[in-house]
Amino acid sequence: MHEWDFAFLIDQRHFILQGLLGTLRLAVVSLVAGTVIGLVGATARLSGSAILRAVGTGYVEFFRNIPVLVQIFWLYFSIPILTGVQPNAYAAAAIATSLYAGAYLTEVFRSGIASIEKGQWDGARAVGFGHGMTMRYVVLPQAFRRVLPAFTNQVLEIVKTTSVASTIAYAELLYSAKLLSEQEFRPIEAYTAVGAAFILVLLPTSAIAGMMERRLARHG
Amino acid sequence: MADEVLRVEGLHKHYGPLHVLRGIDLTVRRGEAVVILGASGSGKSTLLRCLNFLEMPGAGRIHLEGRLVGREARDGRIRYPNRELSALRMRVGMVFQQFNLFPHMTAERNVMIGPMKLRGLSEAEARRVAAANLEKVGILEKARSYPAQLSGGQQQRVAIARALAMEPSMMLFDEVTSALDPELVGEVLLAMRQLREDGMTMLIVTHELGFAYNVADRVVFMEHGVIHEEGTPQQVLLNPQRPRTRDFLRSHTLFRLPEQMHDDPPGPFALTTREQG
C-alpha cells in the first residue's frame, strides 16, 4: 500500500510555483494570440473573397488536423535543421499552441457570427452602418453571447494543451512535476499535485464564465 | 424637379435566371405617401430592398433628391461604392416586416446608436433625439425596455423611431404589419399615418387595403416585376382597370363584415383606435 507524502511538494513549492507560472504564461499568450488569430480567421472564412475564404479554411484544416504535439516537435526539432535557427522551448511551444488555439477559435467565432440572423445585418445597414460598424456594434456583441459556452470550453482546452510543452523541456507545471517526481521518487504525489493545480486554475475560470453567461442571458 | 425625392428609371433585378424586376419607373414627390400592392413574388419587396441597396439593382437608375446614385462607368453600367451606399442609407429610412431591432440594446439604445456613431451626436443629444422619436410613435414609456420585453407592435414602433432618428429624406416600409397579431396592426398603422400627416415622404409595401385607401396619395399595383396599374387610391382600389388588379383586390376582400358588404368594390376599412400598452 502506497504511503502518501506531500511534504516534499511543500519544501519545493517555489519550484512548483515556477512551473505554474510557466503554464500560465504559455496559456495567456496562446489565448490572446489564438483569440486574435480566431477573429481574423473567422473574418476570412466569412469574407466575400474566395481567396480569403480558402486561406482561412486551409489554415483551420491544417492546424486542426495535426496533433499539437507533432506541431511542437516539428517546430522544435525540424526548424533548426531546416534553417539553422534553434527556437527556444518557450517560443516553439507558444507558436504551436497559439496556431492550434487559433484554428479552433476561428471555428468558434465563425459559427457565432454566422448564427446572427440576416435581419440584423439588414437592420444595421438600413441605419447606415458599413461592414465594420455592423460587426462591431451589432453582430459581434450578439455573437459573443452565443459562443460564450463554446469559447469557455476552448479556453479550458487550450490551458490544458499547454502541458504538451513539457515534452520539449519547457518549464511548465507538468515538466516541473516530472523533474520533482524523478528526484524524489514520488510520481503519484507529483502528478496528483499537477492535476489539483489545473483544477484550481480552471474551476474559477469556468465559474467566471458561468456568471458572465447568466448575466448576459438576462436580455435577448 | 425640385420636389422629387425619388426617381427610379428602368430598374431591373435578376436572381440568376429569375428576372424579378423588369423595368420599374417610379417617382415619389416630397411629402407623398405611395403604397405598393401586389401578390407575393410580384417583386415589391425586392424593389424596396433595391432602393436601399440591401439588394444590388441591375440595370436602371435611381435618383435621390435629384442626384444619380452611384457612378456611371464608360460601359453605361453604374457602380455603387460602399461609402456612398452607407451615406444613402442614412437618408433613406427602412422598416422591416421582422422589425430587426438589435436585441442586446434597449429601445432607447436602438434609436441612439445610429445618431451617435454616424451623425456624431453626443450621448445626451442622442438621448434627446431618441426620446423625441419614441414619443412621436407613442412608446416613450418603453425606452428602457429590451426588444424581447415588447410586443410586436411596440417593437415595430421602436423600429420606426430608429429609422426616423437618422432624419431621413424618405422612409421605406416593407410589409411592416404582416408579422403582427391582428390587434397590434392598428397601433403601427396609426403611427405611420401620423408620419404622413407630419409630411414624411413614404413608400409603403402593405396588404392593408384600408390603410392604402385612407392614407396613400397614390397606389401602385405590381405584377411580375412591372408596375401593372397606378393611380389614386380611389382609382386603383375602387375602380381598377386591369383584370389582374381586380382579381387581386377581390381575393383580398373575399370575406367582409356585413356593414362593408354594400361597398362594392372594396371600400375603406376603419382603423382601430389607438391602444397604448
Automatic annotation (TrEMBL), chain A:
Stored SUPFAM superfamilies: MetI-like
Gene3D superfamilies in alphabetical order: MetI-like (1.10.3720.10)
Principal location class: membrane
InterPro entries cross-referenced by the UniProt entry: AA_ABC_transptr_permease_3TM, ArtM/GltK/GlnP/TcyL/YhdX-like, MetI-like, MetI-like_sf
Regions that span the bilayer: 20-42, 62-83, 190-212
Keywords for this protein: Amino-acid transport, Cell membrane, Membrane, Transmembrane, Transmembrane helix, Transport
Topological category with respect to the lipid bilayer: Multi-pass membrane protein
Signal peptide: none
Subcellular location: Cell inner membrane; Cell membrane
Keyword Transit peptide carried by entry: no
Pfam families membership: BPD_transp_1
PROSITE patterns: ABC_TM1
Protein function: Part of the binding-protein-dependent transport system for glutamine; probably responsible for the translocation of the substrate across the membrane.
PANTHER family named in the record: GLUTAMINE TRANSPORT SYSTEM PERMEASE PROTEIN GLNP (PTHR30614:SF20), MEMBRANE COMPONENT OF AMINO ACID ABC TRANSPORTER (PTHR30614)
Protein name, entry field: Amino acid ABC transporter permease
Automatic annotation (TrEMBL), chain B:
Organism domain of life: Bacteria
GO molecular function, a single term: ATP binding
Membrane topology term: Peripheral membrane protein
Signal peptide bounds: none
Compartmental location: Cell membrane
UniProt xrefs under InterPro entries: AAA+_ATPase (IPR003593), ABC_ATPase_HisP-typ (IPR030679), ABC_transporter-like_ATP-bd (IPR003439), ABC_transporter-like_CS (IPR017871), MetN_ABC_transporter-like (IPR050086), P-loop_NTPase (IPR027417)
ABC transporter domain residues: 6-249
Pfam families given in the database record: ABC_tran
Keyword list, A-Z: Amino-acid transport, ATP-binding, Cell membrane, Membrane, Nucleotide-binding, Transport
Family statement drawn from the similarity comment of this UniProt entry: Belongs to the ABC transporter superfamily.
Protein name per Swiss-Prot or TrEMBL: Amino acid ABC transporter ATP-binding protein
Classification lineage: Bacteria, Pseudomonadati, Pseudomonadota, Alphaproteobacteria, Acetobacterales
